[in-house]
Amino acid sequence: MAQNLAILIVDKTGTLKTTTVKEYKEEELYKKCGFKKAEGFAKQTEWAIKLEGKKYLVSLFAKKDGKANTENKYDFPPPVDKDLYFGSCALVGRVPTDVGNDATYYSLTIEIWEKMYEKLFGGFENLDLTCAEDEEEEDELANIPIEKKTKQGYLKDGFVVDSDDEEASEYDSLEDSEDEEEEEGSNSQGEEASGLEIEDIGSELSSEDYEYSDEDTEKA
Fold first, then answer.
1. Model-level pTM?
2. How do residues 96-105 score in pLDDT, each as one tens digit?
3. Where would I find the H helices in the chain?
């Protein structure tokens, strides 16, 4: 039992707030969470956390049954991260002693709990530090000649090309295709013309009749 003990109340919306009790009684803790009856309100788990070389205990008191739309939205650390609680919950801090399972209570503040919370989740990535490291990272394309990069700053390779180069390539391909069509058309016209000439000559030769004269007959 402790005097003026600070505990944390976790509202159903997930908001943390500190509440001070003059005389802590575990059996009356449900009242601090706004419940009229103690039925179903019990200790759900207890975390053991070591901070600055000292071991702490944090107990979670909550209800696992309740009405719809009264679910607690706070993300509790493992091993109860998958469990669902209803209404407000309470977090109470204790410090274990060397005598059996005894422990003394300590005032749990939001600041202390947030440090414990981070450790219970395995730590969080420092976004500010990560951002600073990204800014200090050397640009791999900084020393690449400008003619080897596209207008957007990417390195030209088999997959990334400049839009102008791509358009020029397409234009050149189109011109080559047109030239080939013209050349094929010219050759076909020439062949047709040649065929016509040969056919005309052949018809003239075949249609020419040789006239025999009397002199030729007498000679024969």
1. 0.56
2. 877 656 779 9
3. 29-32, 110-120, 127-136, 163-207, 214-219
145-157 per-position pLDDT tens digit: 777 667 666 666 5
Q: Which residue has the tokens 């509440």?
A: 19
Cβ-contact 13, 34 below 8 angstroms = no
- More confident site: 139 or 71: 71
Where along the chain do its domains lie?
Answer: 3-120, 140-203
Tokens (6 digits) for 65: 């049954």
**67-70: Cβ within 8 A, 24+ apart:** 70/12
DSSP-derived secondary structure for 175-199 = HHHHHHHHHHHHHHHHHHHHHHHHH
Neighbouring CB atoms inside 10 A of 32's CB total: 16
